[in-house]
Design goal:
Elements (H helix, E strand, L loop, with lengths): L2 H5 L34 E5 L5 H10 L3 E5 L1 H6 L1 H17 L3 E5 L3 E5 L8
Helix pairs in contact: 2-4
Length: 118
């Protein structure tokens, strides 16, 4: 969604000289899915084995932000956890997303349109 789409349908000729702003409804220039309507999904997932990484990556590709609980896999097999996190990191970084650790047992995985301010 570019700013051109939001403002291309607006007629600014009716603005008064003293008026400083125009209300713009983000949904006016969009149609379709909830992501296109300006909503971002936040999903809580659990990483209990390496095969769960594909499910997490699918959610990220769909544009969702993932809160990922890694405690189960950490307690089960630390080597498998390292392998899973490395795969997530490589794929998410390649798609301009971010992956960060929160405390000991959580990761936040974001797609490219979301950033984490640290």
């Amino acid at each position: 969604m570019g700013l051109q789409n939001l403002f291309s349908k607006r007629d600014f000729s009716s603005l008064d000289e003293g008026q400083e702003y125009v209300e713009v409804n983000v949904a006016d220039g969009l149609s379709g899915t909830s992501r296109e309507l300006g909503k971002i999904g936040i999903v809580v997932e659990k990483l209990s084995e390496f095969s769960d990484t594909e499910r997490v990556l699918k959610q990220v590709r769909e544009g969702n932000i993932i809160f990922l609980k890694i405690k189960g896999l950490k307690e089960k097999d630390i080597g498998e956890l390292k392998r899973a996190v490395e795969r997530l990191k490589k794929t998410v970084t390649a798609s301009n997303g971010e992956i960060i650790g929160i405390e000991q047992d959580w990761l936040i995985v974001t797609p490219e349109h979301a950033t984490v301010n640290r």
